[in-house]
Write a structure and sequence with these properties.
By secondary structure, the chain is mainly alpha-helical. Helix content is 56%, strand content 0%. The chain starts with a helix and ends in a 5-residue tail after the last helix.
Length: 157
C-alpha cells in the first residue's frame, strides 16, 4: 500500500466520520446538566468518557514523543474523579485538549509518512502505526459509549 494512502486513511480514521460519529458530533447539543449524569450507577457519564479519551490519547501521544514519559497508573489514573457537576470551563478545557492532541497525532502521521511502520526509537517493539491505530480504535469505542449514554439520558438528537 502506498504510504500516502495509508497516512490519509489514518487521518480519516482519527478525524472523520467513518462508521462512527466524530467526537465533536457526539458532544454537540449535550445539555450541561447531563455532562456528569450517569444513566445508572454501573455506567460512566459523558464526562467520564470524555476525560478518559483525553487522558488515554494524551498518554499515547506523549508515549510516542517523549522517552521520559510516565504513563498514568492503570486503571485509576485513566479515569476522572467522581463528580456531580462539570463547569463550562472544565468542559471546554477537556474538549479542546482532546481535539488538540488528536491534531498532534495527525501531525505525527504527516511528519512520519514513510516511517509509520518503524519502531519508535525509545521503545523495544512498538511502531507509530500501532500507537496511532490504538488511539483511533480507543477513541472510536468511547465515542460510541458517549452516544449510548446520551441515548439512555434521552439527550441525543
Amino acid at each position: 500500500m502506498d504510504n500516502n494512502v495509508l497516512a490519509e486513511q489514518l487521518i480519516n480514521l482519527l478525524n472523520k466520520e467513518q462508521a462512527h460519529v466524530s467526537l465533536e458530533n457526539s458532544l454537540k447539543g449535550l445539555k450541561s446538566e447531563n455532562r456528569a449524569k450517569k444513566p445508572n450507577v454501573n455506567l460512566h457519564s459523558v464526562w467520564d468518557e470524555l476525560e478518559h479519551i483525553r487522558i488515554s490519547q494524551e498518554d499515547i501521544l506523549n508515549y510516542m514523543l517523549d522517552p521520559e514519559w510516565k504513563s498514568p497508573k492503570w486503571p485509576d489514573e485513566y479515569w476522572p474523579s467522581a463528580t456531580n457537576k462539570v463547569t463550562d470551563a472544565e468542559w471546554k478545557k477537556s474538549v479542546d485538549a482532546c481535539i488538540n492532541d488528536r491534531n498532534e497525532l495527525i501531525k505525527i502521521i504527516k511528519e512520519k509518512g514513510n516511517e509509520l511502520s518503524k519502531v519508535i526509537p525509545h521503545t523495544e517493539s512498538h511502531t507509530y502505526l500501532r500507537e496511532l491505530l490504538i488511539a483511533a480504535q480507543h477513541n472510536s469505542y468511547h465515542i460510541a459509549q458517549i452516544v449510548l449514554i446520551r441515548k439512555m439520558l434521552d439527550d441525543w438528537k
